[in-house]
Amino acid sequence: xxxxxxxxxxxxxxxxxxxxxxxxxxxxxxxxxxxxxxxxxxxxxxxxxxxxxxxxxxxxxxxxxxxxxxxxxxxxxx
Amino acid sequence: xxxxxxxxxxxxxxxxxxxxxxxxxxxxxxxxxxxxxxxxxxxxxxxxxxxxxxxxxxxxxxxxxxxxxxxxxxxxxxxxxxxxxxxxxxxxxxxxxxxxxxxxxxxxxxxxxxxxxxxxxxxxxxxxxxxxxxxxxxxxxxxxxxxxxxxxxxxxxxxxxxxxxxxxxxxxxxxxxxxxxxxxxxxxxxxxxxxxxxxxxxxxxxxxxxxxxxxxxxxxxxxxxxxxxxxxxxxxxxxxxxxxxxxxxxxxxxxxxxxxxxxxxx
Lengths: 78, 266
Fold this sequence. Notes:
Structural class of chain B: alpha+beta
Radius of gyration of chain A: 12 Å
Order of helices and strands of chain B: EHEEHHHEEHHEHEHEE
Helix content of chain A: 40-55%
Oligomer: heterodimer
Structural class of chain A: alpha+beta
Distance between the termini of chain B: 31 Å
Largest sheet of chain B: 6 strands, mixed
Radius of gyration of chain B: 22 Å
Order of helices and strands of chain A: HEEHHE
Distance between the termini of chain A: 23 Å
Strand order of the largest sheet of chain B: 1-3-2-7-9-8
């Protein structure tokens, strides 16, 4: 899961070195938190969230293959 | 003051759903408008067929419930056995394929186009990270409006999940992959990703649906709204009915719920 999000995010942004994915929870439900450089936020979220929602769709498929559920939040860089 | 009433019906065909709904409401066909929420399918990937889902909206406020319009509807039902007329590709036997190309080491024959190579590599990796094994091949499609789309073919067993309901997952996959390839190659990339010939099948289905619904509109003289579709699929409907003598089409609503409405020509 984590690798999938990392792979996608790093391919989309201008600063791949600042891509960070944290994974919370284990078992059936995991939550992923993606943070990218401020100027890359638009690239991973997209117009009205279209990119982020498409990534979530792919994440859901990947999680289902392992019999799990996964959610993705894109968070502002600190 | 009569409230707007809606009723959702699930049945094997649109005609049957309409007949059932009208019988339940006790209204003649002219008193309702019809919206096809789900055109159904015959269950391609072992998921079992889906029935048709139709929403009827009572659009004549204040009209007293009349006698059911059953006779007319029954005739329609017999006249147009929709599900039988639909030649959706026969459920394909899931082929066992030889172990897919290793995703992290795509074998690249010499003399390949670098953009196509990168496309194949990115998509193979993406599939690998999604836990899927498949074979990926890319080639250029026919140029349309000055752009050459990159056609990507994904083959392998058990890829139904990558298509998803009405191809929604495949569209998300295609969108993300296009952005990734575009970024990697520093140019706008339009990818058209297909899984096991799904898009061709879907296109045939949509053309058939368009003709069937146009016939229905011609017969009844009332407009009909189809389920929400992405732009490429709406385009197929518009093109199919462009030269139809008795109906016109238009898209209404906002993405991602934009729908095609088929209207009788004035």
